Amino acid sequence: MLLALWLVAPGGAESQVPKYEAIEVVDGGAIVGLVTWTGDLPELQHLPITKNPEVCDLSGAGVRPSPRLIVSEENRGVGNTVVYLADIGKGKALDALLTAELLKAELEPGQNLRIDQAQCIYEPHITLAPLRAELDMTSSDDLLHNLHMSGSARYNLAFPIKDKVITRRLRKAGLISIACDAGHSWMSAYIHVVHHPYYAITDDEGGFTLSDVPAGKYSLHAWHEGWDIVKTEAQGGQITGYEFSEPIILEDEVTVAAGTETQANFELSNASEPESQ
Fold it and tell me: Alpha-carbon torsion 80, 85, 89, 91, what sign?
């Protein structure tokens, strides 16, 4: 049975994090699947570039496509969806997630995870970070940016010069949302700070794999940010920020057998979005 839930985050305060035990996984299974879009695609509103066009608008388009819903033209797979086991209590070590995320970001073992502000976009848009990992934040743009975090981490960090690096340890599990208060209202990103390694972000074709899963029955969730603009904030006739619809979580039950591959797929659609209040 597939359920749709409208939740803010897949985790809570560090003190509320369920216990997780790292063990040697022998003959573990894998969960492999796709997140796909069904039905008509929504017409996402393009976001006006209202400041620093010499850096933020090199194409001269005047707008940025919304990064909040990425659907493949080839197979209608949905990228940037976070798929995870919601109720696993033991399995491979959390370091396995850090190793995988560093490899994906083309970073070396021992380096910190990294978020860049490049041409007025947060890169990457979605980050998975193990609980208590250190995160490097920087800006490749030679202009004033800021990185305003809310949720399980609350920082408001200024980047007045290019290549400045600020490092913070992520001490609380849960969802962090990021916005820029320096006039770049179209910029947004998310960090999922997690207490176990069975998380994955879907690729551009909507694919995901969770490997080395101990045999058993699990609740598998798929999180996706909301894509509808429900409120636009403005000051002096200029857009200063957006409020988007709530994230969506799809839920399914999966049974993993030792040494085997289990298929699990999710579908997103316009009906997945909660109605605006």
Answer: negative
Specify the number of domains making up the chain.
1
Spell out the per-residue pLDDT of the chain, length 277, in tens: 344 443 334 443 444 678 999 999 999 999 999 999 999 999 999 999 999 999 999 999 999 999 999 999 999 999 999 999 999 999 999 999 999 999 999 999 999 999 999 999 999 999 999 999 999 999 999 999 999 999 999 999 999 999 999 999 999 999 999 999 999 999 999 999 999 999 999 999 999 999 999 999 999 999 999 999 999 999 888 898 999 999 999 999 999 999 999 999 999 999 887 654 4
Got the DSSP string for 129-190?
EETT-EEEEEE-SSS-EEEEEEESS--EEEE-STT-EEEEE--S-EEEEEE--SS-TT-EEE
> For the purposes of burial, counting CB atoms within 10 Å of the CB of 132, is it exposed (0-12), middle (13-18) or buried (19 or more)?
middle
Per the domain annotation, does 97 fall within a domain?
A: yes
Domain assignment present for 42? yes
**166 falls within a domain:** yes
pTM for the predicted model, two decimal places: 0.91
How many CA atoms lie less than 13 Å away from 27 in the CB half-sphere? 5
Residue 265 structure tokens:
């797929």
Report the alpha-carbon distance of residue 51 to residue 120 in Å, rounded.
10
Q: Which of 16, 23, 7, 28 is nearest to 213 (CA)?
A: 28
Residue 131 lies in a domain: yes
Give residue 34's domain range: 3-272
Q: Is 144 exposed, middle or buried (0-12, 13-18, 19+ CB in 10 A)?
A: middle
